[in-house]
Amino acid sequence: MTVEPIRARTVVGGGAIGGTLAFALARAGHPVTLVDSDRAHVAAIREHGLRMLRHDGATDIAHLQACTPEEFEGPLHEVLLAVKAQATETAIRWIAPRLAADGFVVSVQNGFNEPLIAEHIGAARTVAAFVNIFADVAEPGMIRDGGPGALVIGAPVGAPTGDRVRALIADLHPGTGAETSDNVEGYLWAKAGFGAMLAATALADDAMADLIDRHPAAMHTVAQEVFDVADALGVRLEPFDAFDALAFRRSADPAARADATARLTAWLRTQPKNRSGIWRDLAVRHRPVEVTTHYETVFAEAGRAGVTTPVLHAVVGGLKELEGAPEGMSEARLDALDALAAGHAAGCAAERGPHPATELPTQPALAPEEAEAVHAWLTAHQEDMVADLAAYTRLESPSDDPEALRTCMRWLRQWLDRALGAPDAEELLPREGAGDILIRRYAATGPADDSDPRPLLLLCHYDTVWPTGTLAQWPFRCEGDLITGPGVFDMKAGLVQAVWALRALDALSLPRPACTLLLNGDEETGSLASSETIIAEARASRAAFVFEASAEGALKTARKGVGLFRLTVQGQEAHAGLDPTAGASAVHEAARQILDIAGLTDLAAGTSVNVGVVHGGTRSNVTAGQAVADLDVRVANAAEQQRITAALAVREPANPGTTVRVTGDWNRPVFERTQDVADLYTLARACAAPLGLDLREAAVGGASDGNFVQTAGTPVLDGLGAVGGGAHARTEHATVSGMATRAALTASLLTCFAS
Question: Does the keyword Metal-binding apply (predicted)?
């Protein structure tokens, strides 16, 4: 069957939020169509109406049209999008081609979904909303009333609210208390902090209010971490219901925070549900939680702002562990969060402040004969080094294969235990959709350096660009001095060299400084899930060594910044043959924009702009309604970064019938050759001389995690890894002799920082 909406209002997603809003509109006499992919839910609404189960057990009924996406026909005008956050992409792809030119979409969802929606339909047709409704789906066709909640609607970033949106708010107000605001963003970030607390309660099987009362350290810290990010963005937080967001900021008065917590838990005890929807997803519905999607924006913004969120990461990681295993819920998890919060609190002020000045060593610590002895020891063990690299390479670890990354991580931990012994401390930080982060801390050997006890950061990544199955066609090989195989150069040999440098110093009873070894599993895809951890560890370190591959033997003392942007053009569809003047082609406009954007390239200044992926339109006989182009931008200095940022921010369409929008951001900042970098290179060159190396330096176009380290203000030396070439190509290779020599260079550098 096919169903057409009676009027222009459509709710897409008939769960707790969508069902509540559709019920409110229908009971007030406003025609509304509910679209949901759950056929049983739709069938029950058709047969019995949409039922609302009240607190006293009574049931109210609203009659409205309901259908599945496959059954829906006709244009969309005013859409209330209420699907789970992780389903936004699928839903908006369904909505976009059906949305009328004057239509709009209101995101009545949890999380920050407006930018994704705007990518498909344009910012002008995207409306933001804050929803705090404690309803639930009791059974197909029935919503359990969640009591009074908050609903605030308004255009993103304070843009004016149109007449039709105000009319929608007025129609929703009698049943929901809906209101408008020019600061919906402030409500969304406030709820993100509140939601983080509720997410933490889902780690245990008990009432939300009781868990918040018993674990204030974890609860306050996880909200503070979210609000640290909001503060960095300049967001003005808004209170709602019984949650006073300002009282949970890190700078708030502790007594005011305690009072706000008491008011919040008292209010929670009046609610019909004493457990969160996240808990219900895990324990009752046995389905993945959407909270991981909610906080992707928080983590990304935290990384860009240099804000650390260890407790929030631990909460999200714990929830992922409980998916499919709710029997693992335990209050012990919250006890561990309390301890993590207490340990982190002491360092927060320092992390937010400027990086302490580092007095870098200026001369090698090893005498020439000692440096030669280290090199000789490593040369004698180079077959063992190659054996380690062979075992490591035979564990494929592509960035997009989480299971392969987990397998590789298990091997790495066991190998590190064998090679270096148990660390003084270890943190394994789970990452959703990316490789986990491993942090191992090793104490100094020899006399302590009281002048600066901070560790050195040894930075490596264990993911590669090579897909699972590559080894079957291209296995690891070592023939003479040449090593080939996927990932040997970028950058598995680098980690092996770093570990053997430490082993050499221990074997020869030479001192080494305190070291933090950090391994991340998403460097090849931009370090989106690890950048904030890298920045936090860098800020706590004296200096950092990055074991990315060398540039034909040279250290890398400058790297370009990388920007990843998307150009989205929205046009107007029409029949290209019957009425060629009626529409406005997004593809044609994109072509003009692409040529103009490519013209921003200035090779003399070190700036390149590449449009690498373009797609748009639906059929050759349809004037294209949308076109998208993905951009990769490389810049050599901050001034060029500012120029490109400004140019991308002011795109204007040549065809007034189209709209143009550029989204995205700078994935990695510029890594410039600062004085600290130059001083570290000079030190490395002096350490290389006894090894017979004339060590060179190079500026390269590719970025690394060293870019993030420099953002933290930490002196950094990059390119200490393999000698070879062919990164990301079937010609990838490293040399055996290079492994021994670079490990000896690393060992000599390490001793410079020991007392």
Answer: yes
Of 407, 387, 394, 709, nearest to 546 by C-alpha is 709
DSSP state of 134: -
Residues 638-677 as b or e (16 or more Cβ within 10 Å = b): eebbebbbeebeeeebebebbbbbbebebbbbbbbeeebb
pTM of the complete model = 0.59
Query: What angle, rounded to 10 degrees, do the helices at 216-233 and 254-268 form?
Result: 110
Residue 730 three-state SS: coil
Strand spans (E) along 464-539: 477-479, 482-484, 515-521
Token pair belonging to 566? 């998307």
Count of other CB atoms within 10 angstroms of residue 18: 25
Length of the chain in terms of residues written: 755
How does DSSP classify residue 104?
E
| Amino acid (one-letter) located at 522 | D
* Residues 629 and 590 sit within 8 Å (Cβ to Cβ): yes
Residue 576 backbone phi and psi in degrees, to 5: -65, -25
The contacts found for 691-697 with CB under 8 angstroms, 24 or more apart, are 691/371, 691/372, 691/375, 691/741, 691/744, 691/745, 691/748, 693/741, 693/745, 695/553, 695/554, 695/555, 695/745, 696/553, 696/554, 696/555, 697/554, 697/555, 697/556, 697/557
Residue 191 contacts residue 310 (beta carbons within 8 Å) = no
Residue 591 near residue 567 (C-beta atoms within 8 A): no
Instruction: Give the DSSP per-residue string, 323-342.
Output: TT-GGG--HHHHHHHHHHHH
| Cα 683 from Cα 561, distance rounded (Å) | 25
CA dihedral sign of residues 208, 209, 213, 216: positive
CA 204 to CA 328: how far, in whole Å?
A: 8
- Beta-carbon contacts of 78 under 8 Å, excluding residues fewer than 6 positions away, are 8, 9, 10, 103, 104, 106, 164, 168
Backbone angles phi, psi at 518, to 5 degrees: -120, 125
H helix count then E strand count, the chain? 25, 28
The encoded tokens of residue 593 equal 């924009």
Tell me what pLDDT residue 6 has: 42
Q: pLDDT tens-digit profile of 361-413?
A: 999 999 999 999 999 999 999 999 999 999 999 999 999 999 999 999 999 99
Report the 10 Å Cβ neighbour count for 360. Answer: 16
CA distances from 394 to 22, 194, 470, 476, 699 (A): 55, 45, 10, 7, 32
- Which segments of 158-252 does DSSP mark as H helices, in order? 163-176, 184-201, 208-214, 216-233
Sheet with 179-180, strands from edge to edge, namely 65-67, 33-35, 9-12, 76-81, 99-107, 126-132, 150-154, 179-180
Q: What is the pLDDT of residues 166-199, one digit of tens each?
A: 899 999 998 888 999 888 999 999 999 999 999 9
Distance CA 70, CA 613 (A): 30
Pairing of strands 543-546, 456-461: parallel
Q: How far apart are CA 556 and CA 546, in angstroms?
A: 10
Closest C-alpha to 201, from 315, 286, 299: 315
Distances (CA, A) of 469 to 388, 406, 489: 21, 16, 18
Cβ atoms 632, 644 nearer than 8 A = no
- Left (φ > 0), alpha (ψ -120 to 50) or beta: where does 360 sit? beta
Give 252's pLDDT tier (boundaries 50, 70, 90): confident
φ, ψ at 513 (rounded to 5°): -80, 170
